[in-house]
Amino acid sequence: MAFREYKIGARMFAVCLGGSMTITLLFPSITLALATSSDVGLDKSFYAGHETGFNLEDPFLLGWNKPLKVTLRVDPKTQQPMELKTVYVYQPGTSFPASILHPRIFGKGIQELSEGQGKVGEARRESGAVFTLAKGTFQGAEYSYVDNLTATRGWTPAEVMLVAKDEDVLHAGAGKTMFVREGCWWCHTMLPEETQDWQVFGAPPMLGDFNAESPTAFGSDRKGPDLLHVGSRNSSREWMMLHFFNPRLVQPHSIMPRFDYLWGEKDANGQKIDFDKWRAEYIEYRDGKRVNPPEVPAYGKDSEIRYLIDWIMSLK
Ligand code: HEC
Q1: For the chain, domain boundaries
Q2: How confident is the model at residue 2 (pLDDT cuts 50, 70, 90)?
Q3: What would you measure as the largest C-alpha separation in the chain, in angstroms?
Q4: Confidence band, pLDDT 50/70/90 cuts, at residue 249
Q5: Which residue's CA lies nearest to atom 31 of ligand 1?
Q6: Comparison of pLDDT for 238 and 3, the residue scoring more
């Protein structure tokens, strides 16, 4: 008697499992691999480059091998002022995002335009390349596609960097590596959800926002605010600088750790930063023995904190 019940149970289990596998494998409502990249996805993958997590080209997560996102004001060939243009500069040797090597990742329309008009197939890692996003039509529909300016206009990375001002250069890819390395994702998500969340943190991401991005760094646990659109809420570099040096300077009860060590040894003027002195003065301020907190040192142009803030500023 008992044996027969087991047999019924086993059959019911097989039917349920088989049924659910059939639905999963044969009736998918959407094929993730076919998602066409959104503008956000294109921008993100081109400013971040190949990979912002652990990899052989940047084993210590120092932000090596990353492209630069540059706002150009003058034409690098003629040196004449031109309409502002955002370009992604890949210096010789910098790895390209996965979509350059496998254009299928762009998705339909963008793939054809980028390979055709955009000549992305001609980009060579050894000589570097300069990319931008352009608009084109494919089969009657408009798409943003990737234009390899090195092939279509002959702009080399060196020529572009010669006319670019330092304040127009964002080290956003290196900054995202800092986010991964420093473990910001223990406390911050990059994923507003489709709940009341978006009234505070902005719109949830779309499917095509992730083509060729690695790692996506969604995070899963929130002890601080979501950061996906933080640059739209707060675009003050000064605020970010104070907040990263010591969050308690601007948010007295913050539990966020200080990231003052990302300044490195020296400030913007090449002076050695005296962290002990700063700390002693800060404690006097905290205890009410000083009216103002000590000044936060200006960061150097190649400091890790600059990379991180450059990335935060690009989170619109
Ligand atoms: C221990 C948890 C924790 C860690 C780790 C942490 N944060 Fe925070 N963060 C917070 C909390 C809590 C707040 C809100 C209070 C405040 O502003 O300090 C915050 C606020 C922020 C804000 C301001 C957000 C807004 O909406 O204006 C930014 C930007 C930020 N963090 C970035 C970072 C980055 C980048 C890192 C890694 C380098 C990091 N945080 C690491 C907890 C954390």
Answers
A1: 39-171, 177-313
A2: low
A3: 91
A4: very high
A5: 224
A6: 238
Q: By percentage, how much of the chain surpasses pLDDT 90?
A: 89
| Local confidence band at 1 (pLDDT 50, 70, 90 cut-offs) | low
Query: What pLDDT, in 10s, does the model give residues 200-229?
Result: 999 999 999 999 999 998 988 999 999 999
CB 310 within 8 Å of CB 172:
yes
pTM of the model: 0.91
Mutate to test the pocket of ligand 1, among 187, 226, 236, 305 (most ligand atoms within 8 A of CB): 187
Interval between CA 247 and ligand 1 midpoint (Å): 8
Topology of domain 177-313 in CATH is Cytochrome Bc1 Complex; Chain D, domain 2 (1.10.760)
Q: In angstroms, rounded to a whole number, what is the distance separating the alpha carbons of residues 11 and 225? A: 49
Mutate to test the pocket of ligand 1, among 221, 238, 256, 313 (most ligand atoms within 8 A of CB): 256
Is the predicted pLDDT of residue 151 greater than 70, yes or no?
A: yes
Q: If you take atom 20 of ligand 1, which residue's CA is the nearest one?
A: 224
**Residue 24 has what pLDDT?**
85
